Every structure is written in structure tokens, then in C-alpha cells.
Amino acid sequence: MPVPIRNILTLARREYLWRARSRTFVITTAILTVVAVGVALAPVLFRYIDVGGPTKIGLAVGDTKPSLDVASTLETMLNATASTGSDTNAQDGGFEILPVTDVAAARRDVTDGRLAGVVVLSRAANGDLAFTGYTKALAFERAPQLVRQAANAIAIQDRLARAGIAPADQARLFAPASFTLEQPDPSVKTNGPSSPESLVNNYSVGFAATIFIFMAIMLYGQWVAMSVAEEKNSRVMELILGAATPFQLLTGKVIGVGAAAFTQYAVMFVPATLAIVFQDRIAGLLLGGSATSNLPAGLTVELLIAFGILFVLGFALYAVLYAGAASLVSRQEDINQIVAPLTLLSTAGYLVAAYAGSGLIDPSSTLVFVLSFVPLTSPYLMLSRLGTGLAGPIDFAIAVALLLLAIPLALWAAARLYRAGVLMYGQKPSIGTLVRTLRTA
Amino acid sequence: MPLVIDSLTKHFGSVAALDGVSFAVGDGQVFGFLGPNGAGKTTTMRILLNILHADSGTATWRGIPSTKLPAETWGYLPEERGLYPRMEVLDQLVHFAALHGVQRRRAAALAREWLERFGIADFAKRRAEELSKGNQQKVQFVAAILHDPAVLLMDEPFAGLDPINVALLKTAFLEMRDRGKTLVFSTHQMEMVEELCEAIAIVDRGRIVVSGPTREVKRSTGRRVVRLGVAGDAGIPWLADLDGVRVTRPGEDYTELDVGADRDPESVLHAALARGEHITRFEIADPSIEQVFIERVGRRPRTEERLAPSPVAVPV
């Protein structure tokens, strides 16, 4: 094996094992995994713990003799509103209407929690249907509101029936209007599905992936920086530099820390992803019956591969720069200060991606377009543009090529900085130091 | 001479750390590299190790420039000792050896042998930070030699060691020499130089002030040391009247004199006999390395600005 590769692998091996074997790493990985699986299963768990099945509402028709089947109408309307209403994240198991005759017993059931509520019908003096709800829920909560809306509709249908309008005509009267949302700018081309729901999905998938890259850079980039400063502080790097070049040292460090980072991410994501993929089965096991799949529609294999590539390259670029910056300081306290400009850049890229994802910045603007190719911001923005279908494979390939060019360049600069910076102790981190250091390297 | 350092210069900004440093070290020699703090010793070693690049000049080992030599050539004990504080001793020894291309299993076996020799085998599985400073230093020495380098570069290897550990390390040094290794070390302990070094170089403010075999360096000043003892306890007051003679150590048993190059040391004996003194002791010797050192570098005023920025302030 050639010496440079041997050195890089030896350094990476130490870096990886040193981290991956540490108790802190094992514990945080375990906690993160539990949290990730928990988040992935949150919708299911939420339903299981919080609702535990459909909301049961008792219905006492009494002697009102309504002109329609109030129980089935109410159930249909409540469930229809719940699943297509403005609240798209409705996690409940729907509503179930149970006809009751003994109002007093039903009210006791509500008090004891066996029923969410009971609705009692009566006839007013003018012949209209009157509704009385008994529930522990507050008036402004969702269920009472929905029941109230449904009650209005039922009362109207009852009046119409009494006025002699046939049920078939009624259905036509109450048919919902056709309504779709479209992009205001006709030049905005969306490769993917263009329904409002799928656009939201695609934004959020690209954006979620951006969050993971951002987290990795902030967290594990910091590891690289700390590792460099630690070696400088303990003077051990002088021994290492006697055996390996700064270039090898930095490459090994970034690979080692990167491998540890990917281990943590893999341990965390594989179960979480499985949890998402098998969410309906898990939901079926826990809740019974069939539940709809919650797998985001925008999540495609292509996007996942793009995410993987941008994740690795983006992390590598930032990690190299973090390492170079950290070699200028020798105290842990100074690390944050020296890497602040990089952190700021990373955050800026992330925020632009977030704003573009949420529509605060036009995703098709020139700013987003340019930044999606600039190596330090492309990991964030190219992903967003890919997610929304604004960028194609060629854009992606260009961004990747630029990243592949930028990484060796950054390594070279960081190695130079390292060689000069690492042997200077007790210096204040400043631009002046940086310039002086680079000049004398 | 297999190790040749030729006209090395190195500037840090406007500060000249090395200003034409040249010296040569023979095969299998124990070589003392001396000089006051900030004279350029560490910078020279770092250039040999390729940690720093010289502005000009070359350093070669068996004709190959240091920039092209494999890192395995050198065994390095830095002045600022450095180990991973929280890593197990054996683990890091194996790591450093592996960096120099030694197989892990073999490195572990060798490391255990050396730890055993230095009486710290029980610490193999301890974190470095749990060891005393002296023991850390012994670990550091082991780290420098596990890959069997041809040349050992040791920056202040004896600093901070107790006499027992100094003796252990000295034995290890001599064993390395007997194995045919070339040893270059810096120290401020001149008695160590007298004891170990066949040749030395004294560097001051980035320049070599003298170098060569230890005996020649001692004689290079032209001065000799004379120890004269006479009967009676009144001292030898007339010595002060002799030209070119300086009393460096008055004493009960004998008086030590520094005799200048322009004066024959034996003339002191003649003068004593001429004054009718009863001689109890008369000895002509070379000046000690310490005296040479002080003479060569001690008398000039020092300016801090000219000191190289090699490790100065230790961060807290």
C-alpha cells in the first residue's frame, strides 16, 4: 500500500474507532435512534395513545321522526369533514355514531369517558330540529365544532324535506364546488405532480433532506474542528506530522469523523425509515383495520441518491474547512470563534433553502439558481431544487462536479493553513493571524 | 558524514529562526545539539522531519534530501511532549508505529517489551493522562523508536526526568547507539553532553557558533583549565597578578583557573614554583562544555525579538 494511503487509513481508523467506541457516542446514538423512530412513528403512536380508535358519539333521536337517517348522515358528514377539511394532519380514527335511547345512561357514559359525547334531538315549537350536545370537550374544540356544522346541515335537510324537496335534489344542492390551487407564475415549471398536496410534499421532502445535511455539518463539522484543536492542544500533532503530511492528516480525519457520523446516521435512520415504510402495517397492528400510508409522495429513489451524494460531498467540504480553521487555535473555547464564518455560511445556505422551500423566496429566482451551484451552498439548494423538480440531472451533475473540484482545493488550502497554524500556539484567532500565517506558510 | 545540514535558513515573518545553519553528524554518533532557548534547535529538527520547509539550504541523510526521505527515517521526541490524553498507552503506541508502517501485532509486541523495560508495563492499558510526567516521557520515547528509525531526533529528552529515569533513558540511548542508530539530541544539561556526546554543535540565534567532535569543540576556545593546589590555607592571592589567567573557582583544596590561549598553562606551575609554593595538585584540562557554551553564547546581549516563534507560550 502506498504510504499516503496507508497514513490516511491509519489516521481515519484511529479517528473512527476513538469516536465510535466512546461511551458518549454509543449513548447519543441510542438516544437519537429512539427519538428518530419515535418521530417516525409519531402519527401512529399519537392515534394509539391519544385516541385509541374512533371518536364515539351517542345519538338519541327520541320521537323527533326526522325525514332522514340522522345517524348515518351525521357519521358520513363528520368523517368526510375530518379527512378532507382544512386540517390535513387529522390523525384521529374518525367518528362513530351509536344510536342510544336512554339519554341519562348515555350522559353517564360521557362522564365516564366511554363516549366522547351524546347528541340529543328534539323538535322546537316551529317544527325545526333542535340539537343538544353533552360532552366534556370544550365548545371551541374540533369535535363539537364539526358536530355543530353537521347539525346545521341536517337541520337544513330536514327543513328542505319538510318543504317537499326530494333527497336526490338535495344531494345536488350540497355537492361541493370544484376547487384547485395552481402556481401563479405560468413559467414555473414543475416536473412532478402539480396538485397542491403533492407540491407541499415535494417541498417538505427536499427540505427535510436539507435539514439532515445541515445537522450533519453543524454537529460533525464541529467534531472535526474539536479533534484538530485537541491534537494541537495536547501537542500530539507534532508527532503525527513527523509521520504524515497535513494533507494526509486532514483527509484521514475527515474520513474517520465522517465514517463515525455516517454510522450514527445509519443507526438512526435505518430503523426510522423502516418505521415510516411499514407505518401502515404497524398502524394496522396497533389500531386494527386498515390505515393509509404516510410515505411522502415526493420521496423517490433518485432524490435519495442525490441526497446521499450531496450529504457526503457537502460534509466533506465543510469538514475540511472546519479542520483548517481549527488549526489556527489551540483552545477549545476559541473554536467557535474561528469557525463562526463557516457556520454562518452554512446557516445562510440552509436558510435560503428553507425560505425557498416554504415559498418566502421564489425557488425559481436567480439567487436560488446561482447558490444551488456554489459549492458551499449547493448541498442545500440543489437538493431543494431537485425536490421541487426545478433542477434536472444536468444541474445536479454540474453542482456535484463543482463540489468535487472544491474539495481538493479546500484540502490544499486547509493543509497549508494547518502546516502554518498548527505550530503556532497561544495566538489569538483573528483575520490578522490568518493572513500572517498564510504568508509565512 | 551521513547526516549533513547545509546552510539552512528559515524566517517566520521578519524573524530569522535559522540563518545559515550547517553541521554534520557521523554514522552511529551520539550528537549533542546545544543552544539557548529559541536558538533554532527545534526549527532545525522540524525541517529535518519535513514538518517545516526551509527557506533555503538542504538537509540530507545518506545523500537523500529530507524532503524526499520516508518519514520512517526519523524517530522524533518533540520538546513539547504530546500524547492523546484519553487514549490507552498501548493503543497509541501501536497507532504511531502503524503510521510508520509497522504491523499492528508486531508493534504491540515491541511496545510491551519496551514498556516492560521502562518498568511501566502495568500502564499499558491506562490512559496517558493517568501517567506521571516522567512515565509519559518514557512512553513518548517508546513512540519515537518503535519503528526502528535510522536517526533519533530528541528535543530535550531528559528534561523533567528524575535521576532514576535519566539513567534508564541514558542506557536506552547507548543501546540505540550500539544498534547502529544515529542520535541527535538537544539538552540544557551539560553534564549529559560530556557523558554521552561524541560530537556537538552549538547554535545561537540561528547560527552555528561551533561544531565538531566534543574534544575539539572544548579546545576550540584555545583556553585551558588549570587546577592548582598549594600547601597552607592562605589561598593563592598572587594568581590575580598573572596576565591571561582568571580564577574561576577559588576553593580550599585547589583553585581553578581559566588560562587564555595566549598563555602556556605550564607557566602557572613555573610561577608557583618560583614563588616557593609547595604544590599539592596541578592539573591541566579542557574547559567543560558548560564553560564553552557560556563563553560562546553567554556574553552577547540578547534581544527577545530575534527569538524564533517555536513553542513559546503554553496555552492554559
Question: How is this structure best summarized?
Answer:
The complex is a heterodimer of chains A (441) and B (316). Chain A is mostly helical and 441 residues long. Chain A is built from 16 helices and four strands.
How would you describe this protein?
- With 441 residues, chain A is mainly alpha-helical.
- Chain A is 66% helix and 6% strand.
- In chain A, helix 11 (301-326) runs parallel beside helix 15.
- Chain A starts with a helix and ends with a helix.
- Chain B has helices spanning 41-48, 89-99, 104-117, 133-145, 163-178, 190-196, 214-219, 266-274, 289-297; strands spanning 3-12, 15-25, 30-34, 56-61, 64-65, 74-77, 151-155, 182-186, 199-204, 207-213, 224-230, 245-249, 255-259, 279-285.
- Chain B has a 6-stranded mixed β-sheet with strand order 6-7-8-3-9-10, with helices on both faces.
- The radius of gyration of chain B is 23 Å and the shape is elongated.
- The model of chain B is unreliable at 301-316 (pLDDT under 50).
Describe this protein with a few key phrases.
A: 441 residues, four-stranded mixed β-sheet, elongated, B: 316 residues, alpha/beta, six-stranded mixed β-sheet, disordered C terminus
Which helices and strands, and how do they pair?
The complex is a heterodimer of chains A (441) and B (316).
Chain A: H1 3-20, H2 23-51, E1 55-60, H3 70-84, E2 95-99, H4 103-112, E3 117-123, E4 129-135, H5 142-162, H6 167-173, H7 196-233, H8 236-241, H9 246-277, H10 279-287, H11 301-326, H12 332-358, H13 366-371, H14 378-387, H15 393-421, H16 431-440
Parallel strand pairs in A: 1-2, 1-3
Antiparallel strand pairs in A: 3-4
Chain B: E1 3-12, E2 15-25, E3 30-34, H1 41-48, E4 56-61, E5 64-65, E6 74-77, H2 89-99, H3 104-117, H4 133-145, E7 151-155, H5 163-178, E8 182-186, H6 190-196, E9 199-204, E10 207-213, H7 214-219, E11 224-230, E12 245-249, E13 255-259, H8 266-274, E14 279-285, H9 289-297
Parallel strand pairs in B: 3-8, 3-9, 6-7, 7-8
Antiparallel strand pairs in B: 1-2, 1-4, 4-5, 9-10, 11-13, 11-14, 12-13
